[in-house]
Specification:
This is Rtf2 RING-finger-domain-containing protein. The chain has 254 residues and is mainly α. It contains seven helices and eight strands. The strands form three sheets. Strands 2-1-3 form a three-stranded antiparallel sheet. The structure holds zinc ion.
Length: 254
């Protein structure tokens, strides 16, 4: 574009050049500011992001305690309905398992050592187990098992954290729409309450097993009678708590 010593640039060329440079540097700064905010701050509580951190289907990050408070007492958040209208229960979030560098305390990918930060590498997580990796780790090691815990995952379910391109953002949304059509939630749990009742039964089985195991260990009959009494009252407490949890769930779903 001229200015090579052999020709004089026209005014139009100079204006065009300085304008586009300014625009791109402004855009860069603005993007960096936005990125710094979403990588460091919980948009719900406006506090610094600290583990444990959870993510929604969009790939956004929140402090887990803020989300729990939002689910129990939404009235505590003035702008909560505008920020997380899609988070109605724990099924709508996944708790992330992020590796912390022992020395620096920074969040890193345990495979590549890359740091999770604004303007850094693309990071993704597996909703099946919550483990977080740099995208390059997935590319370098082609496997259907989590590189950290070994649990199987589906490539269709990988979620990009704080996507910076429309393609990645759209992929997160498309995945969510597919799950809804399949009757599932972001955390891959059933959207219906039928499954929950089934889980409740499983829980009861575990409790019974625990109780009989405790009984086996106690030889003295008197101690056994007393222990049974305590266990019964614990069981009653658990039932009460389960009932109140069920009520709370109903409340959360409403
Ligand atoms: Zn894992």
């Amino acid at each position: 574009m001229g200015n090579d010593g052999g020709s004089i640039p026209t005014r139009r060329e100079l204006v065009k050049s300085s304008k586009s440079e300014r625009t791109s540097s402004e855009l860069f700064e603005q993007n960096l500011l936005n990125a710094t905010f979403i990588w460091s701050t919980c948009p719900l509580s406006k506090r610094q992001l600290e583990l444990p951190v959870v993510s929604d289907y969009l790939g956004h990050l929140y402090n887990k305690d803020a989300i729990l408070e939002w689910l129990i007492s939404p009235e505590n958040f003035g702008d909560g309905e505008a920020i997380v209208p899609h988070i109605k229960s724990l099924k709508d979030i996944v708790e992330l398992k992020i590796t912390k560098d022992e020395n620096s305390g920074k969040w890193i990918c345990s495979i590549t050592g890359k740091e999770l930060k604004a303007g850094g590498s693309k990071f993704q997580y597996l909703p099946e187990c919550g483990h977080v990796f740099a995208e390059s780790a997935f590319r370098e090691i082609d496997t259907d098992n989590c590189l950290e815990c070994g649990s199987t995952y589906s490539k269709d379910n990988i979620v990009t954290i704080n996507p910076t391109t429309k393609t990645d953002a759209d992929a997160n949304k498309a995945r969510y729409e597919r799950l809804i059509n399949e009757g599932l939630t972001h955390s891959l749990k059933s959207a219906s309450s039928k499954k929950k009742r089934k889980n409740g039964e499983d829980l009861n089985d575990k409790k019974t097993k625990k109780k009989s195991k405790a009984g086996e260990l106690i030889h003295n009959e008197e101690t056994l009678r007393m222990t049974k009494k305590v266990l019964d009252s614990v069981q009653q407490d658990m039932n009460r708590r389960k009932r109140s949890e069920a009520v709370q769930d109903l409340y959360l779903k409403a």
